[in-house]
Design goal:
heterodimer; A: 444 residues; alpha+beta; 2 domains; six-stranded antiparallel sheet; three-stranded antiparallel sheet; 11 strands; 50% helix; 13% strand; disordered C terminus; B: 69 residues; F1FO ATP Synthase; 2 helices; 91% helix
Chain lengths: 444, 69
């Protein structure tokens, strides 16, 4: 009986998948055809024309004929789905607005909800507000002073042009309104231009997708641990039941396999809250990103989030370092003096490289898993030729669904293992910072 | 050109990761064959080691994605 139900459910998912793939309104992302001309040219193929009438555009989305309908671009779609955004899309039909908190040096602070952008077809805003527009889910600002910021203007489309700045080809986005193009500025980033960012005309402090996911996961973790602690306080001697047994398994596992062996039986209690917080926070965020269609929040795959956690580990390890720790870094005992100087340089670099690898390992593993899953789903659209070929999309669905299921199973394992590895390495670094002197050197 | 080189770089990184994890796996299988009652410990250590090696390969892939974008 159960087997029949599972079979029926599986076939239903396949059928619905292939029908959904044909929907013009779905995940199709026309490629912003960056044809990289050497001069800045207006290229017809890179225009996404929405409509001059925003209300009609929402209705006409399923049927409108995009003459410039380019083919499906799996790379851009994947990158879009693992990036942060200012709107929260559930199942691709419901768009939840999020609070926007923006600061521009010439305007001051602006607080509003991202619902004023009236975002529609793949998270492009139909209206501007106070000079800000929403493109592909993230907020941009119109830098053209002739663009009126007092009223909410209609945005008819977005264009991408490529400019050559300092020998690198950079994409500049333009918004079209009332027949004119207005140059857009992306938000400021502190990467100093390494990843294409830099300080621009406004700063974005909004509650974005990632921030909302982190708040939700924190509240959820707080709730389940609080109810488990209440149950323990009420009956301290009875067997655990329900959520307690799951939490107790993980808690005791981390305490006995990670904290005590690496930090030491007498010193581990001071650092146990830190290790537990890191483990459950990363595990919760990893698993939250695996829920399909739920806003596709890729929090731990974001380098900024993992950088902050790694920075926290760096600060705590170095604050708690005792004399032995610093001696081992700068003046390694037990080796001849030329080697001491060489080792000092290497160990000093290692001081920064260890948290850096923590950051990159977690972000890389989770991002790579998400990109793999998105590529498999993108197979449906590639085979279905962006929704025009029903037979092709059915074949694509039959190929993609088993691959995606397999990849998601691996992603569950990766979620646990990466949270565990992060905690293990944190415990190792803390242990090496507070351990007492080796007595082996005195036995030579 | 940058995109092609980035893709070649990512492929080379995966070669290294694949060889590393393959060696860990083969040694783990030999060890389990020699002493089947330690299979649980060996399996856990094997998965842990694979996570570290895969981390290195994925760091290279992540960087090549950034370079290509």
């Amino acid at each position: 009986m159960k087997l029949r139900f599972c079979l029926l459910f599986f076939v239903a998912v396949l059928m619905i998948g292939s029908i959904y793939a044909q929907n013009h309104d779905g995940h199709q992302h026309e490629s912003d055809a960056t044809e990289a001309p050497s001069t800045v040219e207006f290229s017809n193929d890179s225009v996404e024309v929405l409509s001059t009438d925003p209300i009609a555009a929402e209705k006409a989305d399923a049927h409108d004929v995009h003459d410039h309908h380019a083919t499906f671009d799996p790379g851009a779609t994947a990158i879009h789905h693992i990036s942060d955004g200012n709107v929260y899309t559930i199942l691709d039909v419901v768009t939840l607005p999020l609070p926007m908190i923006l600061y521009a040096p010439d305007r001051g602070w602006d607080f509003f909800s991202s619902g004023v952008f009236h975002s529609g077809h793949h998270e492009d805003g139909h209206k501007s507000h106070l000079g800000y527009v929403l493109r592909h889910g993230s907020v941009h600002r119109v830098v053209d002073p002739s663009f009126s910021t007092d009223i909410d203007q209609d945005i008819t489309g977005f264009i991408t042009k490529t400019e050559n700045r300092d020998g690198k080809d950079i994409e500049i986005f333009y918004a079209m309104s009332g027949g004119k193009e207005y140059r857009l500025d992306a938000r400021s980033t502190l990467d100093g231009g390494v990843l294409g960012g830099g300080i621009t005309s406004f700063y974005d402090f909004s509650i974005s997708k990632n921030v909302l996911s982190m708040i939700l996961v924190s509240l959820f973790l707080f709730f389940i641990f609080w109810s488990a602690a209440k149950a323990y306080k009420k009956n301290p001697t009875s067997a655990p039941k329900g959520m307690q047994s799951l939490l107790e398994t993980l808690f005791v596992f981390i305490r006995d396999e990670v904290a005590i062996p690496f930090i030491g039986k007498d010193k581990y209690t001071r650092f146990l809250p830190l290790l537990m917080s890191i483990f459950f926070f990363i595990l919760g965020l990893n698993l939250f990103g695996q829920i399909p269609f739920f806003g596709s929040s890729n929090v731990t795959g974001n380098l900024t989030v993992t950088m902050i956690i790694a920075l926290l580990v760096f600060i705590i390890v170095n604050i708690n370092g005792n004399k032995q720790y610093w001696a081992h870094i700068f003046w390694m005992p037990g080796v001849p003096w030329p080697v001491k100087i060489l080792l000092a340089a290497v160990e000093f670099m290692g001081l920064f490289i260890k948290p850096l690898t923590l950051m990159l390992r977690l972000a890389g593993n989770i991002s790579a898993g998400h990109i793999a899953i998105l590529s498999f789903i993108g197979l449906i659209f590639i085979f279905g030729k962006a929704g025009t070929d029903m037979m092709g999309s059915t074949i694509g669905t039959f190929m993609a669904i088993p691959l995606t299921l397999f990849m998601m199973a691996i992603e569950l394992v990766v979620a646990f293992v990466q949270a565990f590895v992060f905690t293990l390495l944190t415990a190792t670094y803390i242990g090496s910072a507070i351990e007492d002197a080796h007595h082996a050197e005195e036995h030579h | 050109m940058t995109g092609t080189l980035a893709a070649i770089g990512a492929g080379l990184a995966v070669i290294g990761g694949g060889i590393g994890i393959g060696m860990v796996g083969s040694k783990a299988m030999e060890a389990i064959a020699r002493q089947p009652e330690a299979a649980g410990d060996i399996r856990a250590s094997m998965i842990l080691m694979a996570a570290f090696i895969e981390g290195a390969a994925l760091i290279a892939i992540l960087l090549s994605i950034f370079v290509a974008k």
